[in-house]
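re: ur question from the group chat, yeah i did fold both. here u go
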Amino acid sequence: MLSKIFKRASQLAPLQPGRLRRASVTVNGTRLRRFAHGGNAAYRSLEELLGESIPAQRYRSMDPMTLVKDLVPTSGAYRTLDIGCGNAKTRSAFKGLNDDLVWQGIEIAETYNISDIADLPDGVQIYDGVNIPFEEGHFDLCFSGQVFEHVRHPEDLLDEVRRVLKPGRHFVGSLSGGEPYHWHSLFNFTALGWKTVLEDHGFKLRALYSGIDALTLLLHHWSENRKDMGTYFRDPILIDALAQEKVSGAEAIRQENALKLAFAGHLVFDAERI
């Protein structure tokens, strides 16, 4: 039951002079169920426009490192780049996949993720936010986790990602879809928007998934202490509402996955350099 997933949210009533009233509301599962029928022509159009990039399998939500694990070989020379790596948080996860893997990270000087850029984590370089300081075709995989919504010139940076990737290799990551403002964020991307930009800059979008849904993400940002929504997105409201619907057959699964992308808070992608 959704009542077990999401208990209460604070909603401010209309202001009255000298008075602020707070009312509690409960998410109604019947109301959420209407999102699952696929009757909106815009969502049917989105399904057609996204084409083969919509996953054929039913899933709950996707984490970009799950996609990475399917791409990185367990042995042999392999070079990876984390774009907007912060404090090198993905390095151990990548190195755990392949002992021979070389991890590199780049970050801007103005980042809030590194406390002292004069003492950078191993493998991390500072760059200008566009020009990646490596030669053409240097990497086997590029990764970017929730970065492109902060990038001032995202299309220029995509050109650079393509340049430093070997042909046929993958650019994998996540970025904001329907996410409220956070930490100098500049942009949100729709599923179709991100596919369009990738394809305009020399990538083929192999797969596009929803991470956390936009409603849960909005409430997570709204929460004063971030604990009201449970341990980091443990209870995704719209995703779990869809999971309760009876879905059978390939077309119904595609419709559900397209709907998840329409209401995605985070978009998770696997793109191939062509």
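okk and heres the other one u asked abt
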Amino acid sequence: NTNGQFDYDRYKRAMALQRRNAKDFEATIRQELLLRKMQQFLLDSVHVSKAEVMEAFNQAREKVDVEFVAFDLEDYQKKAEPTQEEISAFIEKEGARIDSYYQARLADYNRPEQVRASHLLIALEEGAGPEQAKEAEAKATRLAAEARKKGADFAKLARENSADPGSAPRGGDLGFFAREQMVTPFADAAFGASPPEIVGPVKTRFGYHVIKVEEKRPALERKLEEVKEEIAQTLVTEDRAKAAAVADAQALLAKAGGAKNLASLDRPRGARYGTTDPFTRGVPEIPNLGRSAEAVEAAFSLTAEAPLAPSPVTVGDAIVVLRLKARTDAPTAPPSEDLDPFRERLLADKQRKTISLWLMSARTEAVQAGDLERNERTLQELLGG
């Protein structure tokens, strides 16, 4: 650009200096302009209604506080003792359910030999020289000696010295792992030790490890036929426990209709009474109770006129009766400035989804046409990266 005019000669020189083909460059610019136009068209096509904004606002500001009685299934399972006849009858009638249970838990019935271990890592950068390697090994040797002392706190040593960001905050704990999950020198050392042995330093491409072997699990290979009766017993026990807990919960509900609150009712032994703190619809977990979308929905259906949930709900491993303590409704006519953050968030979410859907559609068309080419920069721009 010279004196407000496009300088073609200067443009050609710039292309030559950058060793770029002017035709390709112009095609790229044209493509980017079209991309930006499409992006703007998609963004402009998205709107958020007042009803959507009010719904989001209400969900964030509306709160309920409930009391509950929880019937823990574990307590009922201890009392449920199915007979051999019941187990055999279940196997005969519920073969598909037993198979489904087995397939969903294959890792419990078939697994390789495993070790649970903790470690601390003295890192060694790739390409480190002999002096750096010597220093790292010496430090690992010193820490291994400390770890072997009577009363040593391996977790503390790992938190303070390990360069492994994943395990160091947990005191070096790696949990259970199979041999193939670790690099060979580490796996050989861990699987060759006996709990609670400390081994090392062990050199791998990451550096020097000091390993504390905590526990070993032998390999398991149990076929469905071997565990069919065991699974049947588990399922019959669970079914009987749930049926008994639901019966007790419904009996409590029958008495609760005329009561002032759940706390005043006689409860079966072991049934837990409690209260929640006020919570919103979007809460990930109900305070003092647990995670349950069913319970959240039931709680927000309660009113002062009908404070008792008509049916028990499931929360984790418990059957629960709910009763409303208090409800805080959202303002019916909130000022615009209170609604603006909800409008902006909803609009941004909708825009992202719209662009993602367009990208998916465009990708499908490109695949079908055999004209798919990945462009990371374009993807990042479209997604706002």
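fwiw on the second one: The mean pLDDT is 86. The longest helix spans residues 336-369. idk if thats what u expected
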